[in-house]
Design goal:
With 178 residues, the chain is α+β, with helices and mostly antiparallel strands. The chain has a single domain, classed as Gcn5-related N-acetyltransferase (GNAT) (Aminopeptidase, 3-Layer(aba) Sandwich). Helix content is 28%, strand content 28%. The protein has a five-stranded antiparallel β-sheet with strand order 1-2-3-4-5, sandwiched between helices. Strands 6-8-7 form a three-stranded antiparallel β-sheet. Helix 1 crosses helix 2. The longest helix has 18 residues. The protein is globular and about 40 Å long.
Length: 178
């Protein structure tokens, strides 16, 4: 069974099929997705949800849906995923987040990310977690730094073609507490 996480304000749980429309709204929002190659349409968002569900089934973790305790509505996604492509730092587990516009700037990404990191370094026994984003995504790399992650140069994202404006990514790493 996949772990459900709780924080002072948030519930993190695996996404359900019923969360699909709210997830599609987040994934289709041009502002939320401005640092990704493109917003996702409904079919692409559902395929993304299905991949996350499969990751949970295989590994016991993934991107959790983030909800405010006792409140309806998907705040966003925060979680851990095995990186499925090759780079100088793989194999690795990444932490990532995606927050709906109405819920940005409330500290939810940080609160949920801290819970995901605690799960990763605790129950999952990971020794390192990485994160990455494009240089223009200052809110994300600032959060990575706030979480205690250290920058480890950059890399060319292998899923984006040579010359793509978003191919260069910053890499951050965090080792398990001693």
């Amino acid at each position: 069974m996949s772990a459900t996480l709780h924080t002072a304000r948030l519930l993190l749980r695996p996404l359900a099929e019923a969360d699909g429309p709210e997830l599609a709204a987040i994934n289709g929002d041009a502002g939320v997705m401005r640092h990704f190659p493109k917003p996702l349409d409904v079919a692409e968002s559902e395929a993304f949800r299905t991949r996350i569900a499969r990751h949970f089934a295989e590994h016991g973790y993934g991107f959790w849906g983030v909800f405010r305790q006792g409140m309806p509505g998907l705040v966003g996604l925060v979680g851990l995923l095995n990186i499925p492509w090759a780079a100088r730092f793989t194999p690795a587990v990444e932490i990532g987040w995606r927050i709906a516009p109405a819920h940005q700037r409330h500290g939810y990404a940080e609160e949920a990310a801290r819970a995901a990191l605690a799960e990763g370094f605790g129950r999952l026994g990971l020794t390192e977690i990485v994160a990455f984003t494009i240089p223009a995504n200052e809110p994300s790399w600032r959060l990575m730094e706030k979480l205690g992650m250290a920058r480890d140069g950059d890399f060319e994202h292998p899923n984006l073609p040579a010359g793509h404006a978003m191919r260069r990514h910053l890499l951050y790493r965090l080792r398990a507490p001693a």
